[in-house]
Design goal:
Length: about 450
């Protein structure tokens, strides 16, 4: 097959300002310079005319560059901010949800150069960068294939169930129907050519060009997160109840393979209150700088962490984040945990309402102004005020969902001179590495 193209949703605003830094073509007209598009009555308003969609295509595919102004990165995370970002390829403008969406269309291999530079530092080891190139390529192509299959089957896919006693919701890239993936952590962090790539990043992508992870002949849904906290999580804890045998619980270590049953409350209490040896149990700034960009390094405790809320803080937080008035919070009760101790069901007991919520990201979003580091936590209640707990302390492990490759653990493995294929097969149990297309293949 030829090298595929990918459509990446970058920003979603009622007005988008951008600059064409080289000659582009739109509606058979050559243009460049500063531009503005705005949402107006279901259409795109540009230069006094209304359109259903617009394509700004570079005259020179290799040299064409455009800059989007005030792109929001880290959406809903504690480090959310805006920045100008530059991209190569085609800019597509569409209408969605009474806003405009800016979509970047480019080749998968060019996309990967940016993803690797955006997800981690270009100072990372070559083996780590090669491993990440393979999983990023695999994840992307698996999502495109999954979307095609869902569309062909015309299935009514749902990521939300609710009863009187339970609300279960998960967040996945199926939220995107008019482009392949978004540019933020919801999918894979992609920031165009804003994060400068280096020869080693391009080498990692080139030397793995066309390589993907497969399991029984199908491209793997190769998930990854910052820190598993010592044990990888299984897929179904975080997303739909579909078994992926290559995304299962496993100790993040080569020799310490004994794994406690972290579905058990007594075991998870001991686990989280200790700091067992794991690849991702490191505070080495040189290793962390390979995986954590400047804004990620604002997070200093991630292998084990504690968050503290007063009664007033947690009751207001849960009310604001969930949209449900639980009253004062009496208790947070673990209901169901995955292989890494991550909660995928949590019962919130309030003076006005009791409800079980899930899955892991819904729990993390409900218990933090942005995102709790992970749902692998235990609850400690301290003190009493008016018959209610005065303080809630959440003691946790890891950063992110913990499924698949652990970026910090993989960085440590790279520093220990593990080759990229062993890194991959440590995190994706029973998977294979296969060539899907050659770098020399011509694009359509």
């Amino acid at each position: 097959m030829s090298i595929p193209k990918v459509q990446v949703g970058i920003m979603f605003e009622p007005r988008i300002d951008f600059e064409l830094l080289s000659p582009f073509r739109v509606k058979d007209t050559e243009i460049s310079g500063e531009q503005t598009v705005a949402y107006s009555d279901g259409k795109i308003l540009w230069n006094g005319n209304a359109y259903e969609e617009l394509f700004f295509e570079p005259l020179d595919e290799e040299a064409g560059v455009f800059e989007l102004k005030d792109v929001t990165i880290g959406i809903d995370f504690h480090w959310e901010r805006k920045e100008n970002q530059r991209f190569q390829g085609t800019l597509k403008i569409i209408v969605e949800n009474e806003k405009l969406t800016a979509v970047n269309i480019l080749s998968v291999e060019d996309y990967l150069v940016s993803v690797i530079s955006s997800e981690m530092s270009a100072t990372a080891s070559l083996e780590l960068l090669k491993a990440h190139a393979v999983i990023s390529r695999s994840w992307l192509l698996a999502q495109i294939q999954k979307n095609t299959e869902l569309h062909q089957a015309d299935n009514s896919y749902s990521a939300f169930t609710q009863t009187a006693d339970e609300l279960i919701r998960w967040y996945d890239r199926e939220d995107h129907t008019r482009f392949d993936v978004c540019a933020d952590d919801h999918c894979q962090r992609y920031q165009g050519i804003t994060r400068a790539s280096t020869p080693i990043v391009r080498q990692a992508v080139s030397e793995t060009s066309g390589l993907v992870l497969t399991y029984k002949g199908k491209i793997c849904d190769a998930r990854f997160s910052k820190s598993c906290g010592g044990v990888m999580e299984e897929f179904s804890t975080c997303w739909e109840d579909t078994p992926h045998p290559y995304l299962v619980g496993k100790r993040d270590h080569m020799t310490e393979t004994t794994m406690p049953d972290l579905r058990d409350e007594a075991e998870v209490e001991k686990w989280i209150r200790s700091e067992p040896t794991s690849f991702c149990n490191t505070r080495d700034p040189q290793i962390l700088s390979q995986v954590l960009n400047n804004y990620d390094q604002e997070t200093t405790e991630f292998y084990r962490w504690t968050v503290k809320y007063t009664q007033a803080e947690i009751s207001e937080l849960i009310r604001n984040r969930s949209g449900i008035d639980f009253g004062d919070i009496i208790d947070l009760i673990p209901v169901a945990r995955g292989t890494s101790g991550r909660l995928y069901k949590l019962k919130i007991v309030g003076t006005k309402r009791t409800l079980t919520i899930g899955k892991e990201l819904e729990i993390r979003r409900t218990l933090s102004p942005s995102h709790l580091y992970s749902s692998a936590f235990i609850v400690e209640k301290r003190g009493e005020e008016n018959g209610l707990p005065a303080l809630f302390l959440l003691h946790g492990a890891g950063w992110g969902h913990g499924v698949g490759l652990c970026q910090i653990g993989a960085a440590v493995m790279g520093e220990k001179k593990y080759p990229y294929d062993l890194i991959l097969l440590h995190y994706y149990v029973g998977a294979n590495i296969e060539l899907l297309y050659d770098e020399e293949d011509e694009e359509d």
